[in-house]
Write a structure and sequence with these properties.
The chain has helices at about 5-10, 15-20, 40-55, 65-75, 90-95, 105-110, 165-180, 180-195, 205-210, 220-230, 235-240, 270-280, 285-290, 310-315, 330-340, and strands at about 30-35, 55-60, 80-85, 120-135, 215-220, 245, 255-265, 295-300. It is of the alpha+beta class and about 350 residues long. Strands 1, 2, 3, 4, 5, 6, 7 and 8 form an 8-stranded mixed beta sheet that branches. Helix 7 crosses helix 8 (about 180-195) and helix 9 crosses helix 11. Helix content is about 45%, strand content about 15%. The two termini are about 40 Å apart. It is globular, with a radius of gyration of 21 Å. Strand 1 (about 30-35), helix 3 and strand 2 (about 55-60) form a beta-alpha-beta unit. It binds fe (iii) ion.
């Protein structure tokens, strides 16, 4: 779909500007989207936008960090109008790399809560990082807080994905933000001392390891839990029978949340369409597709999704820390994880 853009690039600047001038009349009719989301329900989302606005969406899907690299390398020649990706720290990275353009929109300001947006990117859904424990080997009272994962009574019981993964770095960033570096490092050291095995695999692999008795407790994003809860496979049902879910830190700061979201790119060729698309993502209809497609919660508080797994998980107190501020502590989080051997 992007072949016409690609073939412009080798031409001299004069041809490029002629080509862009020729397409100026059609400017508002196309939107080029780089997306790290790969959910079927997103199709409905894009169709809905095209129906409403007449703007056709060209989509490039890729892995989160690859898309950031690609946009950076394409520079001013990038055809991309919008980047949609996951993890607040990654969105903040894109901001730091100067990839986004500021967006002024009354609609976005009114609909997306202030702690879920920055001047140039917006969250459209939230997910929480929860504790998952083995019901037959762990007492639920022992795993009520993230701090418990570092408690010596859980020695040899903890498994997680890599410390370098954005989900764990963002959680660590939140711990640094709340408690300072020294206490956060103590925590990380305690978690590593409690490892049942060296970090490997994704969140779903950890939940399965807990169910299989390879470890007793882990942390996972809620949508992986919800996905297993909604699975028809007998083996997934067995996994979910064995594990319990805890909202961490309900008596303290609240459970750490992260987001998926996006922003308009600095060199977006179709800026008006890009703002329209961001505003569309904050609409009731789009919020439902966007959040529910990955078993997440809509960023717009008034929008409700009917998702049996999320309903079953229930309500919880979320950490009110602005998600954009996680980026501030992310490199510290990585340094500390490296120092304590949380690989
Ligand atoms: Fe994920």
């Amino acid at each position: 779909m992007f072949s016409n853009f690609v073939c412009f690039r080798p031409f001299p600047a004069i041809f490029l500007s002629l080509a862009l001038a020729a397409s100026a009349s059609a400017e508002e009719k196309v939107l080029n989207l780089y997306s790290a989301r790969h959910y079927q329900t997103d199709e409905a989302l894009y169709t809905g936008f095209t129906k409403q606005t007449g703007i056709k969406i060209n989509r490039i899907e890729g892995k989160e960090d690859e898309l950031l690299e690609r946009i950076k390398n394409e520079g001013a020649n990038s055809p991309a109008d919008i980047l949609v990706t996951v993890d607040a720290a990654r969105l903040a990275d894109a901001h730091e790399m100067g990839l986004f353009a500021p967006v002024k929109s009354k609609i976005l300001e009114a609909r997306i809560p202030a702690n879920l947006r920055a001047e140039d990117w917006f969250s459209f859904s939230t997910r929480a990082r929860v504790i998952v424990y083995a019901k037959d080997s762990i007492k639920v009272g022992d795993v009520q807080n993230y701090a418990d994962l570092a408690d010596p009574r859980l020695k040899g019981m903890v498994c997680t994905r890599s410390g370098s993964h954005p989900y764990n770095l963002s959680l660590m960033a939140a711990i640094i933000a709340h408690q300072g570096e020294a206490r956060a490092e103590e925590w990380a050291r305690g978690v590593v001392a409690n490892f049942a095995r060296a970090p490997k695999g994704g969140d779903t692999d950890q939940i399965k390891a807990v169910a299989a008795g390879e470890c007793g407790v882990t942390i996972s994003n809620t949508y992986y839990v919800a996905r297993l809860m909604r699975s028809d496979k007998a083996e997934d049902k067995k996994v979910m029978d064995k594990v319990g879910i805890v909202w961490p830190d309900q008596k303290g700061y609240g459970t750490h949340i992260n987001v998926s979201g996006g922003g308009m790119l600095k060199y977006a060729p179709h800026k008006e369409a890009a703002v329209k698309f961001l505003e569309y993502l904050a609409s009731d209809e789009a919020q439902r597709y966007f959040a529910d497609g990955n078993n997440e919660w809509p960023a717009v508080a008034s929008v409700k999704v009917a998702n049996p797994a999320l309903d079953k998980l229930g309500r919880f107190k979320t950490d009110a820390l602005p998600v954009g501020s996680l980026a501030m502590y992310r490199s510290k989080a990585q340094i500390i994880f490296d120092r304590v051997g949380y690989r």
